[in-house]
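Holo model, zinc ion. Inputs:
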Amino acid sequence: MPKNNEFLIEEMNAIQVKKNINQNTVAILVFGACENHGNHMPFGADFIFPYELAKQVANKKENIIVFPPMPYGVSLHHDQFQMTMSINPDTLVNVISDLLVSVITNNINRILIINGHDGNISPIEIASRLIKNKYPYVTIACLESWWELIGKLEPSLFNVWGGLGHGGEAETSAMLAVRSDLVNIGLAPENVIPKLPNHVRIYWKFNELTETGATGSPKNASVQKGESIMMSLENVLLSFIDEMNLKDWKYGIFLK
Ligand SMILES: [Zn+2]
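Output:
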């Protein structure tokens, strides 16, 4: 197994890079945001947890490298809250595309994106589709929204709303598991479940849903739930990487 964080590119020197990176290396890119997550959670929640997840995965498997997390995302829908740092969707599409091309130019064709923020889902998809069209031999995969997936994977883990919510039960639990010092649960709101139609999406602004910036049920969060979330997502990603490695990162009709 990798030693001394020898999978974090920001901590590696050129000799380590040369030794550790080859055509079978899996590159993990993390995209987050810097925005209000309610009174009880840190602004960096959307990259702090996914970056920890990336590190846990890389620590348990050979031949993975993790790039520094992108700490800003598309947060236009949060800009009514103080100190929202937002990147325009076009800009983020370009940033993601440029980073993907940089990885590919270094002969890495196995790319896994871990996203921590809802506003990044569309830019990640657009950039990935554009780059896939230019470099068809590359595999780009993405864990798009762990906060929705976890409610489906572990429905019995959560008390309210499948754990959903911005700074809600799942997000707050996840943060408690990795950086409990950054959570002040005493400042968390009681349940805030926005009244929205079921089947048709409204492109709301977040200040239309909550006064504090938090939704869901953070008071139901716990370290234990956060550890279960981490373990469950780790397993998803580790078995994805195992499965892809076995098949040389081929899929569909290219599988013999
Ligand atoms: Zn977010």
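The helical segments are 14-20, 45-59, 89-105, 121-134, 146-153, 169-179, 223-246. The beta strands are 26-31, 64-66, 110-115, 139-143.
Archived with the compound record.
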